[in-house]
Amino acid sequence: MGRGRLIALEGPDGTGKTTQASLLATALDALLTREPGGTALGERLRAILLERDGIRITPKAEALLMLAQRAEHTACVLAPALEEGRWVVTDRYTGSTLAYQGYGRGLDMEELALACSWATGGLQPDLSVLLELPGAEARRRQAARGQLVDRLEDEAASFHHRVAIGYRALAEADPLRWAVVDASGTVDEVAARVLEVVNQRLGPLGIAR
Ligand code: TYD
Known about the structure:
alpha/beta; 5 strands; 11% strand; 8 helices; globular; single chain; binds thymidine-5'-diphosphate; 5-stranded parallel β-sheet
């Protein structure tokens, strides 16, 4: 039995990533998981990290909490599933840390990349799919969801702009491991684009598996 494949859905807030991660996991019969979260520790840390008007968290502490939940998630969920030959779809992974804590918060990218690699034991997604939307469209979708925004979503527009630019730079720097998908249109249209790019990159379903 071969090793499974790890696919990360990435993108700024409001791009429909969570919906698409779920549809992709169903289409691939893959394990669906998310970050921050995915384990008991991860879900506790998620509550701390995303609580709006919660405790103050400095950028380095925020990065380390993201990496703490990732270390747990990788060791306890991702690595064992991949080892068993399962395909896994994760709603966010290392790309989020590089985009949000690196480009967004301005932490040193090299140090951050090294810390990510330490936390994950070097596990990288076989493919990170970046869902891209014009900023105004993403904000409109977020407003339409009508939810209370969380601590990170509550950041200034300039922060989200840096995150979006960061994602684009990450995808352009590593085109073999990243695919950029246009997230505009209907849920079904975007799902079809995502599945197409996964099939192109990781082999048609049933052959690569
Ligand atoms: P998300 O699950 O997309 O939130 P929601 O379910 O409300 O759409 O992501 C939670 C937030 O955490 C998001 O703003 C991005 C942020 N985040 C980081 O800043 N760094 C990370 O490493 C991860 C995994 C997430």
